[in-house]
Design a protein that fits this description.
This protein has a 7-stranded mixed beta sheet with strand order 3-4-2-5-1-6-7, sandwiched between helices. The radius of gyration is 18 Å and the shape is globular. It is an alpha/beta fold. Helices cover 46% and strands 13% of the residues. Strand 3 and strand 4 form a beta hairpin. It has a single domain (3-268), classed as P-loop containing nucleotide triphosphate hydrolases (Rossmann fold), CATH 3.40.50.300. Bound molecules: adenosine-5'-triphosphate (ATP) and magnesium ion.
Length: 269
């Protein structure tokens, strides 16, 4: 069964979608079969893969409102090991409202259960809110990556997010873990960035990824070219930083598995 990782934050514009697309592409580049699911009705994921209005068969909207199996919503990308499920932004407003207003919190979890054996990693891109779409994503997920934009108010509003996930864990998903907080749009040359990095690392001790994502034009160009930064320019700092993030995440997983088998050996002895 693949690991389901939600990219979540209640703050808008912090790099969730950019992370979902480029981290996912990096996992695929490392040889892991990866699926990206767009839970945001803004529908930016399809654009990031160069899909236009009439290229999409069905998406999460249809899974939620028409009971279409998620398997029928999977679309290919230019990378053989990287697939995605769009949100389907082009459906009419009534349908989008029913997606946002859906009250069953387990729709996504049940759907992903049907396909999780097909993938090593399933990445979910969440909308910038703590509404029921993010709730659905966090109930389906095994773990979370939380992007934090490297700016003065970086930690503002994080308290509400932490409280929400704590309650959600207790009520619905005790297995949910933080994979890590990810500093995005970092500009190491500027002093403010350095101060923010120190503050975030101090506040969220041990939970912040070593890898930081720099502000990089190639990452901003993803929707324009309709492909992940790795396919635009694999040597760019943006593409390389997401590749490093993927390596860090995979290494964490290996470490955890080794720790578990050590525990098992101790218990067995
Ligand atoms: N590291 C980066 N370097 C340069 N530009 C970036 C970087 N990360 C994100 N951006 C740009 O910043 C904007 C916001 O990024 P993105 O859409 O990934 O954020 P988001 O958290 O998904 O936003 P929303 O909350 O609206 O879904 C986009 O225009 C994106 O291209
Ligand atoms: Mg987004």
């Amino acid at each position: 069964m693949g690991e389901i990782i939600a990219i979540a934050s209640q703050k808008g514009g912090v790099g969730k979608t950019t992370t979902a697309v480029n981290f996912g592409a990096s996992l695929a580049q490392l040889g892991y079969k990866t699926l990206l699911v767009d839970m945001d009705p803004q529908g930016s994921i399809a654009t990031s893969f160069g899909y236009g209005r009439y290229d999409i068969r069905a998406g999460i909207l249809e899974v939620f409102t028409k009971n279409i199996p998620i398997k029928e919503c999977i679309h290919p990308t230019e990378m053989e090991l990287f697939h995605f499920v769009p949100s389907n932004v082009w459906s009419d407003e009534v349908d989008r409202k029913s997606l946002i207003g859906a009250t069953n919190n387990s729709i996504l979890r049940n759907s992903l259960n049907e396909i999780s054996d097909l993938y090593d990693y399933i990445i979910i891109d969440c909308p910038p809110s703590l509404g029921n779409l993010t709730y659905n994503a966090l109930i389906a997920a095994h773990s979370m990556i939380v992007p934090i934009q490297c700016e003065y108010y970086a930690l503002k509003a994080l308290g509400r997010f932490l409280k929400m996930t704590r309650n959600l864990k207790i009520e619905h998903n005790p297995e949910l873990q933080y994979r890590g907080f990810l500093l995005t749009m970092v500009d190491k040359r500027n002093n403010l960035s350095k101060r923010v990095i120190n503050k975030v690392r101090y506040t969220l001790q041990g939970l912040v990824f070593e890898t930081m994502i720099p502000r990089n034009i190639r990452l901003a160009e993803v929707p324009f070219y309709g492909k992940p930064a790795y396919l635009i320019d694999r040597t760019s700092k943006g593409a390389q930083s997401y590749l490093n993030l993927a390596k860090e995440v995979v290494a964490q997983k290996v470490k955890k598995t080794e720790e578990k088998s050590d525990d098992a050996a101790v218990i067995a002895a």
